[in-house]
Amino acid sequence: MRDRALIEGATAWLEPAGTLEAVTAAVREYAAERPVARPSTPRVGTHLTDRELQLASLHASRRGLTPASIGRSLGLAPTTVKTHIAAARRKYRHSGVAVHTREELAAALIADGYLIADEDWRRQARW
Fold first, then answer.
1. What is the pLDDT of residues 101-126, one digit of tens each?
2. CA 113 – CA 10 distance, rounded (Å)
3. Under DSSP, is residue 3 helix (H, G, I), strand (E, B) or coil?
4. Residue 78 and residue 81: Cα distance in Å, rounded?
5. Residues 6 or more apart in contact with residue 112 via CB below 8 angstroms
6. What is the DSSP letter of 101?
7. Helix, strand, coil percent values for the chain (each to nearest 5)
8. Helices 78-94, 102-111: crossing angle, 10 deg rounding
9. With the C-alpha atoms ordered 104, 105, 106, 111, is the resulting torsion angle positive or negative?
10. Which carries the bigger pLDDT value, residue 38 or residue 12?
C-alpha cells in the first residue's frame, strides 16, 4: 500500500501503528513544513469552495470517477456530489469558460492551477 501511495503522488507515509497523538503530531509537523496554497489568481468568478474543488477534481480526473463512486468513497449521496459539480461548472460558465465535458472541466481546473496537467505529472516522474 505504501508503494502505491507514493506512486500516486504521496510525499510521505505514516505507519498506522502509532498512537493517535503521535500520528496527529506527525501530520501537523509535515503540514507546517509544506503549506499548500490555492491558486492566488483564479479566473474572476471561479472561486470554488473546497468541496466543489474536491468533487470537480475527482470527477474530472483521468480516472473518470462517477458521482456515485465519488459519493460512496466520501460518504456522500450521489445527488450531493452532482450538485457540487454542477455548481463548479456553473461558476466556470458564468466566467465564460465552456465546461460541458470532463475534459473541458479538467482543462479549466488545470488553467486555474487547481489540477496538474498529465504532461507535468509525467515530467515529475509521478507515474
1. 999 999 999 888 888 877 777 776 65
2. 19
3. helix
4. 5
5. 39, 42, 43, 46
6. S
7. 55, 0, 45
8. 60
9. positive
10. 12
Cα distance between residue 48 and residue 56, in whole Å: 9
Enumerate domains of the chain plus CATH numbers. 2-33 (no CATH), 50-122 (1.10.10)
User: For the segment 58-102, what is each residue's pLDDT rounded down to a tens digit?
Assistant: 999 877 789 999 999 999 999 999 999 999 999 999 888 889 999
CA pair distance 8, 127, nearest whole angstrom: 7
Q: What residues contact residue 9 under an 8 Å CB cut-off, 6+ apart?
A: 121, 126, 127
Question: What does the alpha-carbon distance between residue 61 and residue 5 come to, in Å, rounded to a whole number?
Answer: 17
* Grid-cell match 505504501, residue found: 2
Distance of alpha carbon 87 from alpha carbon 52, whole angstroms: 7
pLDDT digits (tens, 9 = 90+) for 32-68: 776 655 555 555 557 889 999 999 999 998 777 899 9
